[in-house]
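Technical note accompanying the year-one report. For the benefit of new consortium partners, we illustrate the data format agreed upon in the data management plan: each record pairs a sequence with a structure-token string. No post-processing was applied to the example shown here.
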Amino acid sequence: MAVGTVTILIMRDPVASVLSVLCSLGVGCVFLLTGLLKLLSPSAFLRHLSKLNVKPMAALPRDVLPQGAMPPGVLPWGALPWIAGLLAFAECVLGVALIVRMFPDRVFPLCIGVLVVFGAVTAWGASMGRIDNCGCYGNILALTPLQGALLTTLYAALVATAWWLPAGFALMPAVQRDVLIGSVALFAGVAVVSMSSRVKFGKDLLDTSPVKPRRPWNPAWLEGFADYADRRAQLVILMKPACPYCKAWIQPLNKISRRPGMPKVIGGMAADGGRIDSFRKEFSVEFPVLPVKAGTMSRIALAFPTLVTVEDGVIGSVSVNQLPPELVDQLRHSAPGGADLRPGAALAKSEPAPAFEK
């Protein structure tokens, strides 16, 4: 009877059945892929959660916090990696449930609710000025909050369509339970391994950052970069207007920019020309600072400041809040009498800027 009922259903409205399956399949694949991305490469997602986690009253005095200190958070900072892993794990399981249409009368409305919550959190974060992208796709794709909200609305509409239209596809309840148990076990294991590795070694299992040593540097990341890269080597510093650590590096980098034989110092900032001009004038910046699109900055900056050496169009090193060792050696040997002229020696010895400066 079950097989016959399904067959009659397909013959009555095959277009609706196919459309329903395609809608749930498409959204399920997106959930599964983005969940896996967050599990295997959680750094970008952690930075996104970090910005949302800072207590509202902590945003004002943040500039006067001791270097390396974390501001008060709504949730304990040490728990954030495991919270990120739990959210990514749930996203993967929900993706599988949508793909195989597992318990649709429960899963589909649950998915719509999750999308509504995600959209509300993104809208709140953007309205508070805490985030400039939706944080869904990590370093692979940076969407503005508006673009993320539009996509979230589309996904919710597709799931609602899949829920409303009848479909000639359904697994037996026993098979659905087996798939649920299997997906929970699989993704829970991946989450534990990935987050344990992140906490212990500070690295992702899968590095999706486009800014890595031996990769080509894309001049389009900084507007007008090619006009200023008039030396074989460049030192790119990615900054944020309100970042105190970035401001502390300005004078040392001014000295580097004046020293012959050193790389050309070029700054990048996700701000308009007027804001950049005011920043340069206020803090006496002698090197060029170029505009960077907010979405691009969220992909290429690990935290602030991020320093990148580029030679012959190829990335040499990437570091946060410290000069690359080879540049420090170059400074030492170029100094009179071999003195150690590392800019901001105290800065170089300190901890990197925390993720909430991203």
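Partners are asked to follow this layout when depositing records. The radius of gyration is 24 Å.
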